[in-house]
Amino acid sequence: MVDEDGNSLGVMTSQEALYISRSRGLDLVEISPNSRPPVCKIVDYGKFNYERQKKEKQAKKNQHVMHIKEIRFNPNTDTHDIEFKTKHLRQFLLEGHKVKAYVMFKGRMITHPEIGEKLMSEIVEKLSDISKLESPPKMEGKTLFAYFLPDKHKVQVYKETISKTGKPESSSAGTDETKVKEKEDA
């Protein structure tokens, strides 16, 4: 038995506990029913319930929910569309979402799964600087899919690079710049 100030009153019968709580004008609330003996507390039940609900709301507010964002590709997807969709995948990952990228085969496209696998490996390579692959891409029915999770350390490094240079550090952009410089030098 615990009183309203948190002081232990010791072990007593339920009738004694009810008598003490009623004499103080408060309620008797069972806090831990599974322990032996059960733990009860003398409190104002309305106030107790309000504080409990307030704590639950706060816990729910502080809880981070990770949504799964999906982007669909087709084996015939053009390079510009691949860049555009990967940019969206990148943005979702930077926001902290889990991402599902999948290649949907239609009709007779399924006879050439290597095209979809090549496309998926290109997507994996483009997102490897800020994400980690949850599991290798796998085929299920006529769909080849892969799940990406944001890698907190890589995302932090990526954001620091952007804040310092103003441009994201990307492997393809760096090679294009070196090619231009090589042509100018020649």
Q: Strand tally, please?
A: 7
Q: Show unreliable segments.
A: 171-186
What is the CA–CA distance across the termini? 88 Å
Number of helices: 6
Q: What is the helix/strand order?
A: HEEHEHEHEEEHH
CATH architecture of the largest domain: 2-Layer Sandwich
Radius of gyration: 30 Å
CATH superfamily of the largest domain: Translation initiation factor 3 (IF-3), C-terminal domain
The total number of structural domains is 2
Largest pleated sheet: 5 strands, mixed
CATH class of the largest domain: Alpha Beta
Work out the helicity level. 40-55%
Structural class by SSE content = alpha+beta
Q: What is the CATH topology classification name of the largest domain?
A: Translation Initiation Factor IF3
Mean of the pLDDT scores? 83
- The best one-word shape is elongated
Approximately what portion of the residues adopt beta-strand conformation? 15-25%
Protein architecture, described:
The chain is of the alpha+beta class and 186 residues long. It folds into two domains: 14-59, Translation initiation factor 3 (IF-3), N-terminal domain (Ubiquitin-like (UB roll), Roll), CATH 3.10.20.80; 68-169, Translation Initiation Factor IF3 (2-Layer Sandwich). The chain is built from six helices and seven strands. Strands 3, 4, 5, 6 and 7 form a five-stranded mixed β-sheet that branches. A two-stranded antiparallel sheet has the order 1-2. The longest helix has 18 residues, at 45-62. The N and C termini lie far apart (88 Å).
